[in-house]
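Sample 1 of the test manifest.
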Amino acid sequence: MFKKILVANRGEIAVRVIRACRELGITSAVVFSEADRKSLAVRLADEAYPIGAPPVKESYLVAEKIIEMAKKCGAEAIHPGYGLLSENSAFAQQVQQGGMVFIGPKAADIRILGDKVEARRLAKEAGIPIVPGVEFPSGRSEADALGEAEKLGFPLLIKAKAGGGGKGMRQIERKEDFPSALKLASSEARSYFGDGSVYLEKYLHRPRHIEIQVLADAHGNCIHLGERECSIQRRHQKLLEESPSVAVDASLRQKLGGAAAALAQKAGYLNAGTVEFLVDEKKNFYFLEVNTRLQVEHPVTEMVTGLDLVALQIKIAAGERLPFAQGDVKWNGWAIECRINAEDPAQNFFPSSGKIDVYREPAGPGVRVDSGVYQGWEVGLFYDSLLAKLICWGPDRAGALARMRRALEEFRLFGIATNIPFHKALVNHPRFFSGDFSTFFLEEEKGIMDGSEAGLEVALIGSVLYKELKRGESRLRQAAATLASQWKGEARRAALRQW
Amino acid sequence: MVKVYHLEFGGQSYEVGVEKAGSKTSVTVDGKKRFVDLARLNGSGAFSILLDGRSFDLEVKESEKGLLVFALGQQFDLIVEEERAYRARLASGGGKTAAREKEARAPMPGLIVKIEVAVGQVVEPGQGLLIMEAMKMENEIKAKGTGKVKEIKVAERQPVEQNQVLITFE
């Protein structure tokens, strides 16, 4: 096993990896930007090393600096977390060339599976249905593209070939909008990913986003850990995830899991990965893409399987065998995760920033918080808006939701705007509760937060009482000052009387 | 004796009465009287409030406008005035929104997606000025007060820095 691991990430995921290291008796080292000197990850890690200015391009994305730091501090392996350099095959390669282990898949797999076209080709070969679509290299004519688009039919999606996380993605309803959307998507793809090639894809009506967690070791063992439902999304950003999914029964789970494991096996995949599918109303499923890293929402899988995915990632990277077989995986109960983001619901969920003045996490039975913040922490605008993940487990979905409602009520995070009120409205929404939803849910339920200004009356009363308190305090101070000067005068008079 | 406070939130006006009798304090909102107790939790602005026995946590911060209050996970930017100050402002001709817009700035680095006003146009508080994209999100920059657009200093598809002046008003 490794003696020291360097964590090339920040925020809650850096904390998550540090925790796994500590439990395994491994020394953890983190790298940090100037903005993160006082971060929770830096405070919790055994060692911490600066790598540059706050913008990610000058710190967390500079592979050379990170590798140099890792070598200098004697780390044997690097955990990339998610985002940042986690799906960068060149980085994985450099880590290996530097004589260290990249905790994740092989560089070649990251490259092949991260390429949507290559990944689809592999899926097709493995016999997995795919959403009809076509690659469109930059440089081909607009007329050609329009021809391809008409063959697929509208609405359709334009995605960056090399993209992820919704960047450079566009939904086109009508033929007339296609040429300008293509131009924008291509230029966005070029500026974000350095490649203007795009991918045109048929747009499915009301699909669910369901993904399968896979694990593969270096000894040919490859298993799946069931599904995660991630249909609650805004602008392709996941907000709430759960495992299992109301839409997946044992037979569909077996089909999806089997397909995901087959694809991983075919690719000769190593370590943890996620195969994403779209599932339509008739339970047909289509391969979407592979995420060659740990997912943000991995805790819901951990809560229902009882496994520690980060510890398993580290063990697999160290060459150990998976300590169990597919038949040993048992699912117990239901888990739900709410992503607590620094986003202001009143400002169209625009990122918010500032100091966290009051912070108290919920606790008690079945509640887990994976957080990267603390009271007094300053939330800046340099990074992702994810502050913490609130995960609740219950024996069934209703039980998990009841806990989530309770835990959201308990969560105190004052000083900056967060999406906690949104989550409260969501977990109390009858349609969400019924399980009848798709990736279109938030589009269809735009008014989800209407009438949820229950806090206003408390705020009005509280602010008036605060004003009264302030007035009382200043009057008290004045009285004290007057009293003090009276005493001084008396003392002076007493001193004079002596003579 | 009941003391009346005038509050404003989101363009709406509210009135809250406070009355102290011995050790008991009561408030009246919308004609409904309730007993309250406020306890400071630490040196900062964190309080526990009991409202007819119902327990809430809240935070109160002084802000540019008045008070920034966090309650039930939500954030409220409130203007709070005592009766006398409120009447004085009304008498001096200051309406509901005394603030006059001078300029609109970018709240963070991003890209201007759409400009929704023209030079010479008079804007009302809350009216959309332009749409900006930052961190993959689109957000409308709204007028904070009334004003007449003097100059639009940015163009659509133009990237802007945090705090950059976008629009000036006469």
